[in-house]
Specification:
With 136 residues, the protein is mostly helical. 48% of the residues lie in helices and 9% in strands. It is built from 5 helices and 3 strands; from the N terminus they run αααββαβα. It has helices at residues 19-31, 37-46, 48-57, 89-102, 111-128, and strands at 68-72, 80-83, 106-108. A hairpin with a 7-residue loop joins strand 1 (68-72) and strand 2 (80-83). Helix 2 (37-46) crosses helix 3.
Length: 136
């Protein structure tokens, strides 16, 4: 990761010693390649060499699961990211989103893009009309 990476850590009571490193990796993992963890995970599934290359460049500090969330300002710029760890990947992501929104900023997880694609596919299916029943 870049020496310009700045972060603030909160280490909860009883948390594992790697938790801060995991949280920083999650945040840096979305900032480094400039894409969200969900897209990294999809690319990893489709082309494992992509993830291997990104992880190698980042010293292994790029998770391919939700937990790191990009922060967007009013203009759509990404001034930073938040990484959370301690629960399931989706719970971590929800906690990051809640914190970002509490700060008056916009969270970008990649789930928004997936929801738009699902909505577009459903709209296209509805516009095509009902399908004829399958024959014997």
């Amino acid at each position: 990761m870049s020496s310009r990476l700045r972060y603030r850590l909160h280490h909860g009571d009883g948390a594992g010693l790697l938790r801060p490193d995991i949280a920083v990796a999650e945040a840096g993992g979305v900032l480094g390649p400039g894409i969200d963890n969900r897209r990294i995970g999809r690319r990893d599934a489709a082309a494992p060499e992509f993830f291997t290359s990104i992880a190698a460049l980042a010293g292994g500090r790029v998770p391919s699961v939700p937990g790191g969330v990009s922060v967007r300002d009013e203009q759509g710029h990404v001034p930073g990211a938040v990484g959370v760890t301690g629960g399931t990947s989706l719970d971590d992501e929800r906690a990051a989103v809640a914190g970002i929104r509490a700060g008056g900023l916009v969270a970008a997880t990649g789930a928004e893009e997936q929801a738009e694609q699902t909505h577009a596919a459903r709209s296209a299916a509805c516009a095509a009309g009902p399908r004829p029943p399958a024959g014997p």
